[in-house]
Amino acid sequence: MLLYLRLFKESFSFAINALTNNKLRTFLSLLGVTIGIFSIIAVLAAVDSLDRNIQDQLSGLDKNTIYLTKFSFGPTEVPRWQRDNFPQTEYDDFDYIRRTVPDIAASAYVIFGNSETVRYESETIAGVSVNPASNEIYEIENIKIEDGRFYTESESINGSPVVVLGYSIAENLFGNVSPLGKQIRIYGRKLTVIGVMKKMGAGFGGNPDDKAYLPANFVRRFQNGGVDGIPGAILIKPEKGVDIGAFEDVLKQKFRAYRGLKAGDPDNFFINKISGFTDAIDGIIGTMNIMGWIISGFSLLVGGFGIANIMFVSVKERTNLIGIQKSLGAKNRFILLQFLFEATILAIIGGLVGLVFVWLTSIIVNLSEITGDFKFVLSAGNMFLGFILSTIIGLISGVIPAISASRLDPVEAIRTGI
């Protein structure tokens, strides 16, 4: 054990000498490892951070939540012209579903709203995400209210002119004044503010702070329905513990019967699940990880060649010393391990520098306002991965030079060094 500790100490000393004796050569050689480790860990950390951010945003939604609508949220074999002729999902469809389909914990009717301009006296905010929906959306999307309340079932059914504002919208329109009871204009019509949502921050699917919720039946008064009318959807949250496959079958059967579809007729609607959506996101994130590994792998390859180059030069420069060591009884294994340790130490130094750069980048990104509320997280697992990769690069890059050094003939080595 003491022998290996001494070997490690000497190898570390040789590695430091290699770094200091020819700084430019060492810098260029280690730059590849540094960039490679930085690229891979930065990409993995960014993808992990994105995945964590998305999961946090979707955590309030039940993954079994279903969107029943004319649109498909994923790839489909139904041709575009056929989908365009599907009937819109309307409020009457929603009313039928919630009355007849069993095992529904909550359901809501939503209209896919556009960005609208919101006005209060002289203040105007453009591009607000307006979300017309029935009152059950409060439970399905786990909306949190900071001030006031959400609209009631009676207000939802009657289409009362009330609105619940996101935190940023309320702050920009009213400042420090309470918005409750104030009248604003959306769609050119007056609505009374009855609630303000808690500050949530930017996330997947938009920033809840920049949204406004109002009863869908209020919008249905002045916007047309039908095939060419406003697109809508039915959100359905099944009861916990229910067989989702059987639930979907019942839902499809009843809705086909309601729309008068005969056996053999294709569906003129889509049943989209949040779980399928999250699976698609996981697939995209997995692809991003693979692409990051492939691109960053080239940098690591260059870094490995750089380490190998340093080690071949080191063997050449120390040929005489190797001959002397072997003539004094040093075994081939000792020479082999000496150069392997040196290559590994050099690679680890380059990798640690790369990790420091990633750490500094994460701090800068989190302190800046460029990414808003998105947090760049450098996990201990990714840092450990960077350390392991550096070690592997050093071992692979140093193995051939180390083998060549261990096989040198001591007499020839001494003679070459003279």
Strand-helix topology:
Blueprint: H1 2-21, H2 23-58, E1 66-69, H3 80-84, H4 91-100, E2 104-111, E3 115-120, E4 123-133, H5 137-140, E5 145-148, H6 153-158, E6 162-165, H7 167-174, E7 183-186, E8 189-197, E9 211-215, H8 216-220, E10 232-238, H9 244-258, E11 270-273, H10 274-317, H11 319-327, H12 332-367, H13 380-406, H14 410-417
Parallel strand pairs: 4-9, 6-8
Antiparallel strand pairs: 1-10, 1-11, 2-10, 3-4, 5-8, 6-9, 7-8
Helix pairs in contact: 1-2, 1-12, 2-10, 2-12, 2-13, 4-9, 10-12, 10-13, 11-14, 12-13
- From the N-terminal CA to the C-terminal CA, the straight-line distance is 34 Å
Write down the overall mean pLDDT. 80
Low-confidence stretches: none
Q: Largest sheet, described in full?
A: 7 strands, mixed
Query: Helical segment tally?
Result: 14
Structural class estimated from helices and strands: alpha+beta
Shape: elongated
The topology string of helices and strands comes to: HHEHHEEEHEHEHEEEHEHEHHHHH
What is the percentage of strand-forming residues?
Answer: 15-25%
The count of domains is: 2
Number of β-strand runs: 11
* Computed Rg: 32 Å
The portion of residues assigned to helices is 55-70%
Pfam family, one: MacB_PCD
GO molecular function: transmembrane transporter activity
Family: Belongs to the ABC-4 integral membrane protein family.
InterPro entries: ABC3_permease_C, MacB_PCD, Macrolide_Exporter_MacB
